[in-house]
């Protein structure tokens, strides 16, 4: 099983969250790779069984510009069975808390097999590790079940 984490981060919060997830993934019997969005070749999307996307939120609940290409690539991919998850950090001071996670969530739910979403307030805390473990579990269980079951719901990790 091949799993990718692809993330965007300016001030390091989402990077930190992506690295927590990567550490957890590395304890699993899967081939996992972590990419900054700038280093991820969009043409490689089809090589993975599961992709977890990490994004901060910009403007008024907007996607970071550097994530727009990835967002469009999922829309064009046409792989409804591709297992995905989306996670991100944001600041609840803003009216659209983690709005970019919501934008990805809505698109991935339609175009892929979305397993889980996770929102973290600014810097990940110790209690977020358990939430990260649940996201990884949801994603890997979904890949294992993908051939057995049809599209399922998704989990909001609290
Ligand atoms: C100009 C600006 C706009 C932002 N807009 C939002 C927003 O609409 N919603 C939100 O949840 N966070 C917003 N944030 C907060 C960032 O998403 C948050 O600090 C995030 O953790 C940054 O991630 P990073 O450290 O990975 O770059 C904004 C931050 C800045 C500087």
Automatic annotation (TrEMBL):
Cofactor(s) needed by this chain: FMN
Against InterPro entries, the record matches this protein to:
Flavodoxin, Flavodoxin/NO_synth, Flavodoxin_CS, Flavoprotein-like_sf
Keyword Nucleus among UniProt keywords = no
The answer to whether the entry has keyword Electron transport is: yes
Q: Which residues cross the membrane?
A: none
Span of domain Flavodoxin-like: 3-144
Q: Which UniProt keywords apply?
A: Electron transport, Flavoprotein, FMN, Transport
PANTHER family named among the record's database cross-references: FLAVODOXIN 1 (PTHR42809:SF1), FLAVODOXIN 2 (PTHR42809)
Q: Which family does the record assign?
A: Belongs to the flavodoxin family.
- Put simply, this protein is called Flavodoxin domain-containing protein
- Provide the species name: Mesobacillus maritimus
Organism lineage reads as: Bacteria, Bacillati, Bacillota, Bacilli, Bacillales
């Amino acid at each position: 099983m091949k799993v990718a984490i692809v993330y965007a981060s300016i001030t390091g919060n989402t990077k930190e969250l992506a690295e927590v997830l990567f550490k957890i993934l590395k304890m699993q019997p899967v081939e996992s790779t972590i990419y900054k969005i700038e280093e991820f070749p969009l043409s490689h999307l089809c090589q993975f069984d599961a992709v977890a996307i990490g994004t901060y939120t910009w403007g008024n609940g907007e996607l970071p510009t550097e994530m727009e290409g990835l967002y469009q690539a999922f829309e064009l991919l046409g792989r409804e069975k591709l297992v995905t998850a989306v996670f991100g950090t944001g600041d609840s001071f803003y009216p659209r808390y983690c709005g970019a996670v919501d934008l990805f969530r809505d698109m991935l739910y339609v175009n892929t097999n979305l397993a889980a979403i996770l929102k973290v307030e600014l810097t990940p805390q110790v209690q977020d590790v358990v939430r990260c473990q649940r996201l990884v579990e949801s994603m890997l269980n979904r890949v294992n079940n993908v051939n057995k079951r049809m599209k399922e719901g998704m989990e909001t990790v609290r």
